[in-house]
Structures are given as structure tokens and as C-alpha cells.
Amino acid sequence: MPEKPPKIRIAHLPTPIEGFSRLRDGLWVKRDDFSGAELSGNKVRKLEYLVAAALDAGADTLVTAGDVQSNHGRATAVVAARLGLRSVLVLEGAASESEWTCGNAFIDRLVGAEIDWQPQEGAVAQRLDAAADRLRCAGHRPYVIPVGGSNELGAWGYIEAAREAKDQCDTMGLDIDRIVCTAGSCGTLAGLAIGIKLAGWNVRLTGIGISSNADKKTMWARALIDRTIAQYHLPVTITADDLEIHDYAGAGYAKNRPAELAVIRDAARRGGLVLDPVYTGKAFFGMMDLAAKGVIRPAERILFFHTGGLLGLLAKPGLFQLE
Known about the structure:
Blueprint: E1 17-19, E2 27-31, H1 43-56, E3 61-67, H2 71-83, E4 86-92, H3 103-110, E5 114-118, H4 124-137, E6 142-144, H5 156-172, E7 178-183, H6 187-198, E8 204-209, H7 214-232, E9 244-247, H8 258-271, H9 280-292, E10 302-306, H10 310-314
Parallel strand pairs: 2-10, 3-4, 3-6, 4-5, 7-8, 7-10, 8-9
Antiparallel strand pairs: 1-2
Helix pairs in contact: 1-2, 1-5, 2-3, 5-6, 6-7, 8-9
């Protein structure tokens, strides 16, 4: 394994791997939703590296972006508070007044994040730069973290997660055929793709796109993988066959179809596996749909990366009609 960049320790690692045969034969789940409490989910693995770089640069403020119920924004705000740093969250998207009082948005405000909100989507990069410039003019030292923590440094969180998961599977005597994960900003997928190769793990990686389309996701993931390999001189090659991304954006980012909500309800009731409607619920729906279509064969043993999202789920109870 090549030399890794430095990181701080904020996640509860290793996260466990649990079997969910009640939901599908041969289904195992990597519980990255157990990576902490306030700091739960996949974003925390990336932040271990990103925040280490921020501290090394002498930053006093973490600046990042997302939507109103951003898991990444919440995790960034919490780790900033834990370390005595300021946080500024550039948030976008229409939100009701009630949505600011629950889920991730509530935690953001509880831990003291400064919210820079615009109801219209778009121009995130420019708004991040503007927020950083404003902070510098006020005498602060901001460190800008991209959406989802998905850059070359953040990818190390899931390069390492792949090694961690392989070691666990080897110890458990668990022979996995396929890893399935959400593809959003593609940092998790890119890190896993590189980490699987570095670990010499003979598994297939499948990404489930939950926004945009599969072609764009593949382009983003490819670019991030290539930049990361080049920057850290990693001795691996990722081919086109290694990037399998399926489009399950459906009605769009953070918008749900009845079939997706039904799968989330079913996973909770039959397996006690709680998924969220923005990320893991769509990814789980996509995985089950691919299995129903025969793309995933019945005998395959699957490791599904549960990347968190509970707080986002708690902000959207109105989506579900519960008896």
C-alpha cells in the first residue's frame, strides 16, 4: 500500500459487516451508518483526511456546500464544532420553514454553523469561493471542502474503507462477489474502485446513480480516479470495465417514486434495515431492481455499503404512509 496522507481520527472504525438474508440471500451490509452518531455516514471517512489538511494549513473555518438536508454539511459542521473551528455551509434548494427545524438542518444550526442559503440551485463553486473570500476579508483562514468531500484527498477515506472491508471479509471467511454503493458526488465510488485494486480484491463494484445520469457519473468518477492515481502515484489501473454505474435518479435528486419508498419500507419492516430516501434507499432500490432483472445473478454474494442518511430520513416523515 502506498504512503497515505495524514488524517485525524473522528470515525468509529472499523464499521461492522452484518448479514441481511431476510432481505436477500447472500446480502451483507457494511454499516458505515455506524461510523459515529452526530458524525455518522460515509462523509466522515473523507473528512478525516480533509480536516487534517485544514488543520495543517492553519485554517480556522471549514467551508462546504450541499442542499438543505446535506449529510456532508452536517458532518462538516459537527467536526468543526468538535475541533473549535467555525463552519460556513453554502446550502441551496427550496425548503419549507419546517425543514429547517429537523434532520440535518437542525443539527447544523444546533452546533452553530453559519448558513449561507439560496433557494435557487446552481453556481455552487462560485458561491463557495465568494464565501471564502468574504471570510478572508474578515481576517479568517477558511479551508474550502468540495461538495460531498469528493476530491483526491477525500477519496482516501474509501481507498482505506476497501482495505478495511476486505480484511473483515477475509477474517469472516466471507467470499463477496459484488460491492454495491451509492453514486452521488462519486467520491465514495472512486475511492472504492482504487482501494479494491490496491487490495487485490477480486470483486465487482457497482455504483447506483441517485442524481444526474449514469454517463455523467461515469465521467465524474473517471476524472476523480485519474486525478487521484496521478497525484499519489498509485500503482493501479482502472479500466472502463471497472466502472459500472447504473442510473436510478428516477424523479431526480431527493425526489422519490412510490416504488422506491416501498422498498425503504420493506427493508425496515422485514429486515430492520433503515435507509434514507435520498441516497441509500435509492441505491438499495436500484440493487434490488438489478437483481430482479438478472443483471445481478441470484447466487451472487453482495456487500452493500450503507453510507448513512438517518437524519435526512427523519426530516421527511411525510413521504411515508404508515399504518
